[in-house]
Write the structure tokens for this entry.
Amino acid sequence: MADIQVPVLGDPAERATPALTPGAMSGSKPYVAQAVHQQPLGFAGELPEDWQAKALGRMGELLGKYRSLQVFMDICVKCGACTDKCHYFIGTGDPKNMPVARQDLFRSVYRRYFTPAGKALGAVGLGSLVGAKEFTRELLDEWFNYFHQCSQCRRCSVFCPYGIDTAEVSMAARDVMNHIGMGHKYANEIIGKVHKIGNNLGLPGPALIDTLEGLEEDVKDETGQDVRFPIDVEGAEVLLVTPSADFFAEPHVLGLIGYAKVFHAAGISWTLSSKASEAGNFGMFIGNYEQMRKISMRIREAAQELKVKRIVFGECGHAWRVAYSFLNTLAGPWDFLDPRYPVPQHILEVTNGLIQRQGIKLDKSGNDGMVLTVHDSCNVARASRMGDCPGGQFTIPRDVIRASVPKFVDMHPDTTHEKTFCCGGGGGLLTDELMDLRVKGSKPRMEALKDVIDREGVTHMAAMCAICKAQFTKILPIYGYDREMVVSVHQLVSNAIVLGNND
Amino acid sequence: MTTLFAILFYTAFAVLLAGLGIKIAQYARTPAPLKIPTTPAPLTASGVAFRMGREVVLFESLFKSNKPLWIFAVLFHLGLFVVLARHLRYFQEPVWFPVALIQPFGLYGGLAMVGGLALLALRRVVLARIAYITAPSDFLMLALLLGIGVTGLGMTTLAHTDIIAVKAFFLGLLRFDPQPLPGDPALLVHLALVAVLMIVFPFSKLLHAPGVFFSPTRNQTDNPRERRHLSAWAAKLEMGKLESGRN
Ligand code: HEM
Ligand code: HEM
Ligand code: SF4
Ligand code: SF4
């Protein structure tokens, strides 16, 4: 970590666009997956001789399977509206981190091998006239580096006049690379663990049961109440699927305690599942439909085996995207569940509904002295929804926080709601070898946070995503702040909820 | 000259029509296996139509994104729209009333279009970020349109051509009975460039015009929990029929 330069934080209102520094991040890359992590997922173990042909073959397949990719490859007019919108560009100044330039790594190959103009001109060495490039080993290495400098946060897609989403291109590129043995170790190792053990952190069933018993004791000591943390209970009303970090990482686990208290106070029977002990779905990060589906099917199986009536997801951004936007597609139809509830529900929808109906009571004094702001997670903000109307993903978390704390302040409007900035660690980049990128990529968020700390006396920032929480816990100290500044939304609920006399 | 241009325009028209047809069919046929609207997104089909309308008519996202660029873009596209609408008079007899109505605005449309194009071109040279992402073909597109605009404006203001004859030529083309085309250089250059534009259109980024309507992030409804969205290939995969195997 010695070589990390911490960016200087400025004023979010006049966020300066950095000067171009070509090659600034050309050395940043994650570890390449070994054959042991590749092959169990059905990917090539290592780069074959004929990687180029294989890669082009896979590209062709994806172009035929994903309208997004095909259309986005053709219609970008290079207007540059997206160029200053990516946190990794803002933090690094590397021009290849401008969304359109990142896409162009893929598009230049598309143009060379899949378009008439690129094929014709490319054949006589004039491809560069139309932005077409030979798919060389050097270009492949650039793919690996820069498609792992994209957190698939979709901020660029908000600002593009055609909604071109670089995340779609990154996913496709990662899938192509997986197919030629150039996988991302961190992501593929984790997917392996989900299949083998049931969750991303590789926490086996017995250890999980132990942890949950420990939590029951802790809560009993703290509140005197018998708040349960049930697992594999057949016939429970709710199956709770939550990121495995919630089982022990801080501040995640404080959020899990919050979910349990909400269910307890509202009298809703619930259970975790040792089979689906993970909400996260890294299949999305590697752009692989089949993996994403396989991981999702665990949840269907768990719901059927445990005969639950509802499925509720804990706080996690990309997991909520897969759950809200894709689960019905991947693992539906959900006709065996109670039709009165959406499938799946977000824990914040449940809690917010209970607050509205006064099914639970909150006492703000439980969070005395705290001034809160909230970090909208990119996948919640731009790739999913909560509640019944557009934008519920913004109002519901804020309503829950406001009901739990004495004072709440929003950060600069260019950095919240659908314009929110990624924490810097999303999209499968939450790995130590990318720390430099993660620190730099968090700059716009940290700038906006510093601003409300200085102006409004904000003491804590709530997050609703396991990755955001883990990222900020690491990044805050690097910027000179306390790691405990980042809190789970349900940690605030947990501190405020009135247990026991709830008639 | 008349024969040459007749052939040129038949060819250009055929390429444009076939090329666009093929691309649009490709976009329409390629499945969108997942729900990926950029949220917050409308919950109903009419809401989606309204969102798309705002994107196409007002360039809403671009407005949020970059005000100077939005002004240049509107200047150019609005000008282009007026000019093209005005040009309809060369292809119809009698001329529609709305087309007749905008005739006096052709000059302003042309000026807006050319001015917008010049500003867009300037951006590509002056702004480092935009210069970085610009390929020669991006300049070519601007140059082509500028060439068409400037020769057109030249005809409107300085070197007038025989518009009645031009119209007769194109109405003749429509009836497969070409009439003599005036030989004014400005007109011939104007028309030659237009033919090039038509031919280039389906092979270039000009596909953004039809393509924007197919962009899944903008044209999907936000209702994944209510309605199961399943593409044909994903349905096959579920039935275990996909031959490409387990990955
Ligand atoms: C549905 C209709 C259309 C829509 C919604 C649309 C929208 C846009 C937008 C938002 C941009 C980006 C901003 C800019 O650079 O100006 C753009 C760029 C461009 N459009 Fe269109 N457009 C349409 C039709 C056309 C047509 C018919 C043409 C030409 C014949 C055209 C030519 C261009 C060109 C050349 C650019 C790139 C300008 C540059 O180099 O900066 N557009 N369009
Ligand atoms: C076959 C198609 C076309 C024909 C026959 C044609 C013909 C003409 C003629 C005769 C004029 C002179 C008008 C006058 O003196 O008042 C003109 C002007 C002009 N043309 Fe075209 N043109 C064609 C296509 C286009 C296209 C595709 C564009 C733009 C991309 C364009 C842009 C202009 C402009 C900007 C002017 C000047 C402003 C105006 O008079 O409206 N033309 N055109
Ligand atoms: S904003 Fe969209 S069209 Fe413009 S350069 Fe970026 S990706 Fe291309
Ligand atoms: S998706 Fe996010 S990280 Fe990726 S290019 Fe766009 S803004 Fe940058």
Q: What stands out?
A: Residues 241-247 of chain B have pLDDT under 50 and may be disordered. Chain B has 13 helices and no strands. Chain B touches chain A through 65 residues (CB under 8 Å). The pocket of protoporphyrin IX containing FE (ligand 1) is lined by residues A 77, 79, 161; B 56, 59, 62, 69, 73, 76-77, 120, 138, 141-142, 145, 206, 208-209, 212 (CB under 6 Å).
